[in-house]
């Protein structure tokens, strides 16, 4: 059985069908790429998968549970995390604090316990910090733990966003163009990080323009064009698919 | 003017200023969670005093029970206010939410008039006794209570924001609501808690000051203007700046008194408008914080 199952997903904005009857499956332990020319509906699809937008038709199931219509924090609690195309960090918090916010929902401390500083709160906070540092180590940012997030250069902001997403303990991680704005060395590092995350048991769905990275890391590639799925399969077959070549070369939005 | 006189004015300024600070904190906390100015903030202040008087006079409870009971009850009113008035329109535009808070403010003060009448209601001082002498100036005992309570509130709030998971969640919502939701934070819950905290602080201010001024159903709007001016003066959205703004506004008011005591109540409005014209981000905020 697939981990994430998407059936007939459709989203219209006025006359434009941004996502048009798209179905696909993501299997546990894989890296699944979604590619397509600009405006193909990739980011809209991401928003539909994570509760930031509601589809006009179709449904999304994660490990059998219906995700469609849930609010974002509920989706997160099911075990789905995401990053944004434009990094969305808590800029005036430190790097470590950003990741700590990610540990928020699975720590038990309620309002009263925190307010009263009951025993156990401190220990839990210590565990959270430990865990947060672990995630920072994973993306090689541990040495910057106390730096304000706003002072990080672009590439490291992306890595921090990934670390923060991991802190919510996802089983499925959705990455929206993680390589955008990275140089080739950073992109190489990113590939390594993605493998490490997958080997931790986290399944990855990645929307990406960098074809080198996509062909390198993905087990499965799905191609969207004008909202519709035009191809899916392993990367080496996708590269040769006539419909895909047509979409990229014939369309007006090449990558 | 003599030093003792100056000191006396400063004491009065810091006394009023601490009250403004608590109200400014209420404005700031709700603003941080919702981007909305809650004009019902002054009613929490009024209800704090009212409930304390009710518990003390009508129920016959000792002050030591009546005061905390009033604060807890108003905190409950804050939660109810959020659930009944704000939540149904939570995703609405800011302007309609602001109007809702104005309407809510009128409803609360009308209810208070209905329940408690339209007379000014007094409350005894927490610890009655003669004023204390300090370097030639006099400090009322109740003023010390006010300072003490404000100090405790500010320290507790600082701890909440910097040390606890809830505080971190509140700061996360303040900075980037989308990302906060993505971290599994229930932003609706944060909004509710923000109203509860704002109501608690407003009530605390109201209870602490009622022994000096007594209370009436219609004092909410006036004090809300002061608290709002203090929050704007310091810089909206930042708790430390709110407190600084409150104290500063209290001092500025007293500085005007030697020239004309009738002008005192205009000061808040003048300060409010000047800041909005000249330095809209507030005195104590370096840059405008980014909003997404």
Features of this protein?
heterodimer; A: 255 residues; alpha/beta; Rossmann fold; 6-stranded mixed sheet; 4-stranded antiparallel sheet; 10 strands; 23% strand; globular; B: 292 residues; mainly alpha; ABC transporter involved in vitamin B12 uptake, BtuC; two-stranded antiparallel sheet; disordered C terminus
Folded structure, characterized:
Chain A has a 6-stranded mixed beta sheet, with helices on both faces. In chain A, strands 2-1-4-5 form a 4-stranded antiparallel beta sheet, covered by helices on one side. With 255 residues, chain A is an alpha/beta fold. Chain A has 10 helices and 10 strands. Chain A folds into 2 domains: 1-79 and 170-255, P-loop containing nucleotide triphosphate hydrolases (Rossmann fold); 90-169, no CATH class. The two termini of chain A are 33 Å apart. In chain A, helix 3 packs parallel to helix 6 (154-166) and helix 5 crosses helix 6. The termini of chain B are far apart. In chain B, helix 1 crosses helix 6 and helix 3 crosses helix 8. Chain B has a single domain (3-278), classed as ABC transporter involved in vitamin B12 uptake, BtuC (Orthogonal Bundle). Chain B is mostly helical and 292 residues long. Helix content of chain B is 73%, strand content 2%. The chains are: A alpha/beta (255), B mainly alpha (292). Chains A and B meet through helix 2, helix 3, helix 4 and helix 5 of A and helix 5, helix 6 and helix 7 of B.
